[in-house]
Structures are given as structure tokens and as C-alpha cells.
Automatic annotation (TrEMBL):
Residues 80-83 are annotated as: Involved in Mg(2+) ion dislocation from EF-Tu. This is Elongation factor Ts. CDD domains: UBA_EF-Ts (cd14275). Residues 72-274 form the Translation elongation factor EFTs/EF1B dimerisation domain. One of its GO terms (cellular component) is cytoplasm. The keyword Cytoplasm applies. Belongs to the EF-Ts family. NCBIfam families: tsf. HAMAP family: EF_Ts. Keywords: Cytoplasm, Elongation factor, Protein biosynthesis. It holds the Pfam family EF_TS. Signal peptide: none annotated.
Length: 275
């Protein structure tokens, strides 16, 4: 008879994040020894890391930090929502975020190659893959800087960790308006700050589509320039933060709200899990 109890199974699952069947097998092999079972799970898990590389990570969380003049945003992904809402995964994400803040990582590669407690962050993830039994990866990392930096996290489900995260940097000190704008970004998902940030090829393509659509609709030739310009401006109003109608007052643009509050938006980042 196995030399362990249901409480031992529960404790090992909570400490490693591994599945029920894997935990039972490890305890059987370790004759109930928790430390040995943990090592077994780790070794077997590490052997399977390469097998998990091709798996899809569609769940996870977004973690954010706004300290002083710097804001950091990290997207950490896993395979299932069961793991995403677990304490083990949450603790790993917190550790990863703290490291991103410490090194002010600008992208995932910088963060993964940085050293934490004598290991690279990538090695720490590999170990987590081993014990939890799922592919875990840092998908995206962003950093913004300004006089005032705010962060905002949004849960799309009460049972899951934050799925949408925003960091916003501004010149000026109206933190409340900055936070309102961060909440707006979470809801309306702008892709760029200003229309100058839109790639020229994207604008050219929008003009081509607008013209082709207008011609297909049989619009008069003389009216085409105005129609095309109106539709391209519509594209800007949908995608450019400064030109979007503000969530709390649709009669004003985000740019106008920021101006009235004495703010100049210098940068932002928005992540949504898996998007």
C-alpha cells in the first residue's frame, strides 16, 4: 500500500502545480517522500519540455507595475485556464514581473536572458514547465516612461486573473485623468498613440480599400476624394488613441481630455492574453 495520504497528494499538487495523476505516480515511485516526489516530477517534466514546445498557449495572465517614472507590462501564458488561475502560476508571474521591473526589460528576449538568483529567467520557466506540466512562456514585455505612470488591469472573468493590462506614461501630474485614459485604452484597444505612428503602407492600403469600396458602391467620381478621406479618417479615429472618442465623454477625443488636464501622453502599452 502506498505510503502517503490524500493530504500528501493535495500538498504536492499545491506546491508543484502538477496534475493529480502525475502527483500520484511520483508519490508511488518515491514511496511517499515529498521531497523525492518533487524531484521526480521536476526530472520527468524537464524531459518533456521539448515535447511541449509546439503546444498552444492561449491562457495566462497580464501583470503590470507602475513605479516612479517607469511602467512595465508582462504577458505570461500557459495552456489551460486551470493552471492560469492557480497559485503556483500566479507566484511565477509575480516573480517574472519583479524581474522585468528590476532590469526594466524592453522586450521578452531581454527578460528571458536576464539572471535572477543565479539562473536565467528562461531556466526558471523551464523548471516551471517541468513541475506544472504545461508549456509556460513569456509572450510579450513592454516598458514606458514619463513624469506620471499608471497601470490598469482588467479581469474578463471573475474566476481568472487579469486578462487585459495597460501601462500609460504622461508628462504632467494628473494621475486620476491618466488612470481614466488607461481604463479607456483597456476598453477601446487603440493600436498607436498618434496618426504619425501608423505605418505608411497601412495608410496607403486603407486608401486603396476606401477607394475600391466607394467605386463598388457606385459613388460619383467627383465625390471620391472626400469619401476616401472621410473613411481614412474613420480608420484613424478607431485606431489612434489621441483621436478616439473618450470613453467617459464621447463628445471629446482622448487627446482633448489629456490637453485639458495638462497632460501629454508619451507612451502606452496594452496586452490582452492570447491576442
Amino acid at each position: 500500500m502506498a505510503n502517503y495520504t490524500a493530504a500528501d497528494i493535495k500538498a504536492l499538487r499545491e506546491s508543484t502545480g502538477a496534475g493529480m495523476l502525475d502527483v500520484k505516480k511520483a508519490l508511488d515511485e518515491a514511496d511517499g517522500d515529498q521531497a523525492k516526489a518533487t524531484e521526480i516530477l521536476r526530472v520527468k517534466g524537464l524531459k518533456g519540455v521539448t515535447k511541449r514546445e509546439g503546444r498552444t498557449t492561449e491562457n495566462g495572465l497580464v501583470a503590470a507595475s507602475a513605479e516612479g517614472s517607469v511602467g512595465n507590462l508582462v504577458e505570461v501564458l500557459c495552456e489551460t485556464d486551470f493552471v492560469a488561475k492557480g497559485e503556483k502560476f500566479g507566484a511565477l508571474a509575480d516573480r517574472v514581473l519583479k524581474q522585468a521591473v528590476a532590469v526594466n526589460a524592453k522586450n521578452a528576449e531581454e527578460l528571458l536572458s536576464s539572471e535572477l538568483d543565479g539562473q536565467t529567467v528562461q531556466s526558471i520557466l523551464d523548471e516551471a514547465n517541468a513541475t506544472i506540466g504545461e508549456k509556460i512562456e513569456i509572450k510579450r514585455v513592454a516598458s514606458v516612461e514619463g513624469d506620471t505612470v499608471v497601470s490598469y488591469l482588467h479581469k474578463t472573468s471573475p474566476d481568472l486573473p487579469a486578462q487585459i493590462g495597460v501601462v500609460l506614461a504622461v508628462k504632467g501630474d494628473d494621475a486620476q485623468t491618466a488612470r481614466d485614459i488607461a481604463m479607456h485604452i483597456a476598453a477601446f484597444s487603440p493600436t498607436v498613440l498618434s496618426r504619425e505612428d501608423v505605418d505608411a503602407d497601412t495608410v496607403a492600403n486603407e486608401r486603396r480599400v476606401a477607394e475600391a469600396t466607394a467605386r463598388e458602391e457606385g459613388k460619383p467620381e467627383a465625390a471620391l476624394p472626400k469619401i476616401i478621406e472621410g473613411r481614412v479618417n474613420g480608420f484613424f479615429k478607431e485606431n489612434v488613441l489621441l483621436e478616439q472618442a473618450f470613453a467617459k465623454d464621447a463628445k471629446k477625443t482622448v487627446g482633448k481630455v489629456a490637453e485639458e488636464a495638462g497632460l501629454q501622453i508619451t507612451g502606452f502599452a496594452r496586452f490582452k492574453v492570447g491576442v
